[in-house]
From TrEMBL:
Organism: Actinacidiphila cocklensis
Gene3D superfamilies in the cross-refs: Winged helix-like DNA-binding domain superfamily/Winged helix DNA-binding domain
CDD domains registered for this protein in UniProt: LuxR_C_like
Keyword ATP-binding: yes
Alphabetical list of Pfam families matching this protein: AAA_16 (PF13191), GerE (PF00196)
Name of the protein in its database record: AAA ATPase domain-containing protein
GO molecular function: adenylate cyclase activity; ATP binding; DNA binding
Keyword annotations: ATP-binding, Nucleotide-binding
One BP annotation, GO: regulation of DNA-templated transcription
Lineage of source species: Bacteria, Bacillati, Actinomycetota, Actinomycetes, Kitasatosporales
GO (cellular component) term, any one: cytoplasm
Boundaries of every HTH luxR-type domain copy: 854-919
InterPro entries in UniProt: AAA_16, P-loop_NTPase, Sig_transdc_resp-reg_C-effctor, Tscrpt_reg_LuxR_C, WH-like_DNA-bd_sf
Amino acid sequence: MVWTDVHPPAGPPMVGRLAEREAIGRVLEAVRDGFSAVLVLNGDAGVGKSRLLEYAAESARDLSVVRLVGVEAETRLGYAALHRLLRPHLGRVPDLPQRQRDALNAVFGLDDAPPSDRHLVGLATLTLLSDAAMATPMLFLVDDVQWLDRESAETLAFVGRRLYADCLGLLFAGREGADGLDVFGDLPALRIEGLADVEARALLASCVTGHLDQAVAERLVAGTGGNALALRELAENLSPEQLAGVTPLPEPLPVNRELEAHFQQTAALLPADTRTLLLLMAMTPTDDQAALWRAAGALGLSIRSATPAVTAGILSRGTTAVFRHPLIRSAVHSAASAQQRRSVQAALAATSAPERRAWHLAEATEAPDDDVAAELEAASELAQARGGYSEQALVLTRAAEMTAHPGRRAERYLAAAAAHLASGNLPAVQPLLELATPLLEGPVAQVRATRLRASVEMFCSRPGEVPAMLLDAVARLGATDPAASWDLLREAVQAAVIGGRMITGTTPREVARAAAEAWHDRALPAWSPDPLMAALAHSMAYGYTAGAPALAAALARLRDADELHGQDAFSVMISIAGDELWDIEAKREILEKLVRSDRDRGALYGLSLSLLTLAKVEIWNGRFAAAESFYIESDDYMAATGYFRSGDFHKALLYAWTGREKELRAAVAAMRALAESQRTGVTNRWAAQALSIFEIGRGHYREALDAQLAMFDDHPVILGDINLAGMVEAGLRAGDRKAAIMAMDRLEERAPLAGTPWALGLLARCRALMADGDEAELLYQESIAQLEKVPVAVELAWSQLLFGEWLRRRKRRADARVQLRVAYESFASWGAAPFAERARAELLATGETARRRTADTLSDLTPQERHVATLAASGLTNAEIAGQLFVTTSTVEFHLSRVFRKLGITSRKHIASRLNQTGPED
């Protein structure tokens, strides 16, 4: 049920609950101050959650109050609750940005548009509600969230995470431990306990009109645990003699489960037609009165059947009959016999719309029925077309249960598992796979099940067993389906790259060789990930000489693509391929294109990964602040989606360059722990890269070399090339020339094959380091000239630093100062503290004074403010920024107002110049 009321009716007297009322008050104050706030109330049935929502409504008479109540009968109908909530605001949908408008129209079946990513639906809901709150601040009260359909619950949880300065408050209430609460798990929450003894006795006394014996009151309070609903029911249903202590109290007291039994006993005394009507009401959405009375007519019931239930206190008095408490609804439903439920379901099936008819038919059918199963499968396709993947999964599961043939039943279980996977509900996948496995017939079905298991493992960042699992599936398929085999091998290669030498049951090279042998180049769209994955497989299987040309061709193909349809981890593969060739330009261009595509589709999980990889591109170009903004944005989306979160370890490279040792050590420890627990060998490589850069920056060459040597022999080498130049330097400075030569030999082999300016610039630098005579000067100059061609500013400054050090040791102080000053200015302006201090020390040794830089005023900007400011400086409007960051325009306006104040400007046209200013020297 959903309705709006500016002056809600007062509930029973509020007793106690000072802490809870203060928490609600903070929510209301935030809304009144122009901000937003969210709070989830959870606790046992009857403990007082609904009364607290009523208190919030009573306290919000100056706000527009909107209420939504979850309905058990709707839990399987995707976006049903959201549609009820937004129905009064659908007139605003045409004013939404097109992508958001299309997303809502698709899920509500208002046009034939393909389903959008569910996070676009969340953004559209956020925009719609924020726009509605511009006129009058709004408070949304959502009760019984455990009975919201999953799509609606996820959408509302997403909205709760994205609110900031929108004059919107959200209060959710749900039963403790219910499945439906899991999607709200990371929102601010307050557990509602039973009333304290003093408050419970006061509530009981307020409900008793006659004498209340003190000992009886204490017994009732202790027996109910302070449950407010139980206390009120006891006060109403115990006799005056029992309350006065004249006659004994019943044993056991009707509380908790007994309270539900009490409601069932009360309903059992009603006439048969009233009991049938109550059951029909329990199985029908509260606000769909038309459906209720159509089915009632089919059952021969009229409005008069409700009168005895109103008299008995089962239904509330009013123009629309509703259950007095949600617990009564569930009590009525659970008390009915299977035959009674089937009879009501048959009436609902006879009078429902097609998308609901199939489910009611299934519930009305006692034994498996293939015709009903087929109707359910057709209904599941309608759900999928609207993006209701959770609904699709539930309907397919029921279709499987109604299917007589074991093999066909298994197929439907697998389809339901795939729908749960698409919805992001990973815990629901495994039970369906277990149901399907004993029934599977033939290799195709077995392979399908294996692929689903592998997908779950990869979604959970557990690649260890995936490659062997998928190779086994390929073997079972044989030569029957080459295209399906390649899809499995492509996914196996991806898992092998991420798992590295930590995968089990096979090796990365074996996986790569199987994929390389199976690959046949064919006509594919330019955005296809297949050529890139095949190129990575060739490089891993046959060596760099064979793989480099294929990698270069695959990256060129993606650069030429008009659009990208990236899979979730495709950005990671692009990043790895770009690093293998030292091709920063291809990497940046493709990743930026992928980020745009992910934004357009609302694919927040893929977008979060794309931003992580793009952040590293910015780091290599010395744009640390931009990288920090990308990291913040990525973390924001990870939190919004509820997927696996990596904490701060993905910032290890940034911590290394900026010299934040404490954070770096913690990140490295987390990466190594993840590698050990999840079998993600790639995180060990990232950790080694970050540690080596940090240690080289501060002149600890032995430690840097040890970090690099730990990964150097990890075959096949993926992610190793980008560290080779550092290994040459660390080996030479640590006195381990053998290690330096090993790295140099590999660099001499691979850099010319890559042929990119980054690769050739590093090769010239390392040749200069290895040179004994004056030829080093020409090699350093060549390194600088090559690195100037591409956006790798930190590498350029690094070469200038090494050249300056070489010149100083040759007693050419004036020439050394030129290189060292440029290097120092660059490192210092970026915040690359270890390298800046190293360059500063060298400058001092030449006789020049180099003062440390102080932090500039821009450091006062939070990462979110800096990111918004950067986007505003690029020319985007507030609405465009809001759409890009999946927030509201109100939030963007708030951040910009703080940016203006901190930067001392009054117009967005001045943002760019202030962002480009550097701080003064001390």
